[in-house]
Amino acid sequence: MFNRDRWNEILEALNANTFRTFLTAFGVFWGIFILVVLLSLTKGLRNGVSKDFGDFATNSMFMWGQGTSKPYKGLPKGRRVQFKVEDVGVLKQKLPELKYVSPRGQLGGYQGANNVTRNDKTGAFTVSGDYPEYIKQQPMDITAGRFISYSDINEKRKGVVIGNGVVTSLFNVGEEAVGEYIKINGVNFMVIGTFQAPNNNGDSEELANTIYVPFTTFNQVFNRGDTVGWMAITAHDDFSITSLKPRILEIMREQRTIHPEDERAIGNFDRAEAFGRITGLFDILKFVGFFVGGLILASGMIGVINILLISVKERTNEIGVRRALGATPWQVRGQIIQESLVLTIFSGMWGVACGACAIMLMNYALEQSGPVDNFANPSVNIWVVVIALGILIFSGIVAGLFPAVRATRIKPVDALRTE
């Protein structure tokens, strides 16, 4: 603890040239402030992009058939690969690490020809044949009714779940959609549920214009037999879909009689891998934030060293008197180092406080303006503040050490002769 006399000496030394002390303290303040703000902005970008992925299971991949690039076992090159329903069971059996294997079928598109009608209204929408677990892989908010159930699958019911874009196109304002009928390619389906697509998803418009049909009903009504258009596959949390992907593709090549080295026959999109690349980018940005903030802080610490060197030179007589009265070198060093610590910690914590205020203002502005694409909830982990405090203490000691060593090298006799 500092005693009263020591505190008075420190304050008197720092107040000897107030403007110079202020400019030096501002360098430290600005370095910490920039560090906190940069890290919070990086966190906000990470949160925003992660939010764009929504609640979609990021440990997932999609897989679909393409054309073969190599002949195999008498089958020609260029053959179209078509998955079958039996492939789903094989994947589940051979890879218990998989949590969901959802076969899917698709018809039309919301930008294609008109394929859905209701009374005198028509629209072009994506019609997707799915299993109940797909709602756990793709986020959607059920606004009325329910999603597809296994009863619908087993009994091949002609029920559909429609997005809010479909509701807007085919129903009047305020009209209840659940229980009404729509026609898909001339076949009647009853609406059993409606959903709203998440606004933070980049594919929200397409999702809002999607109609979900039980997979078994889809294949029967639209004459798809036992074919599967594509699959959405999710691994259990303890396993990485990226590490399981080579085995999944290997099994599917065996199932569909594809050359083991044919990389083009089965298309796939690894959502976990894409998400990993994005998070890796933000790790780099976080490092850049630390690096830039550290450089600015280093420049502030150089300013602290300079002001203390000047202060030591201006107080040569004082140091000489103290040494002549019996002050030890460590007492002199301690005085200078404590002055450095007071200056750096005080100005640095002001930087942390102002950075926290800036973060609060950013979050308040986001609340007032509504969601912003790719940016949400900027914040800084408490450990960043702890690390910043550690940096300040270490920097204060280092910054005061050089002037302190110089002060102790002054001989009392020479110091007393200095005018």
Write a structural description.
The protein is α+β, with helices and mostly antiparallel strands and 419 residues long. It folds into 2 domains: 193 residues, no CATH class; 174 residues, no CATH class. Helix content is 53%, strand content 17%. The chain contains 13 helices and 14 strands. Strands 1, 3, 4, 5, 6, 7, 8, 9, 10, 11, 13 and 14 form a 12-stranded mixed beta sheet that branches. Strands 2-12 form a two-stranded antiparallel ribbon.
Write a short abstract of this structure.
This protein is of the alpha+beta class and 419 residues long.
Key descriptive features of the protein:
single chain; 419 residues; alpha+beta; 2 domains; twelve-stranded mixed beta sheet; two-stranded antiparallel ribbon; 13 helices; 53% helix; 17% strand; elongated
Secondary structure blueprint with pairings:
Layout: H1 4-15, H2 18-52, E1 60-65, E2 83-84, H3 85-94, E3 98-107, E4 116-118, E5 121-123, E6 126-130, E7 141-145, H4 150-155, E8 159-163, H5 164-170, E9 181-184, E10 187-196, H6 204-208, E11 210-214, H7 215-221, E12 227-228, E13 230-235, H8 241-255, E14 266-270, H9 271-314, H10 316-324, H11 329-369, H12 382-408, H13 412-417
Parallel strand pairs: 6-11, 8-10
Antiparallel strand pairs: 1-13, 1-14, 2-12, 3-6, 3-13, 4-5, 4-9, 7-10, 8-11, 9-10
Helix pairs in contact: 1-11, 2-9, 2-11, 3-8, 9-11, 9-12, 11-12
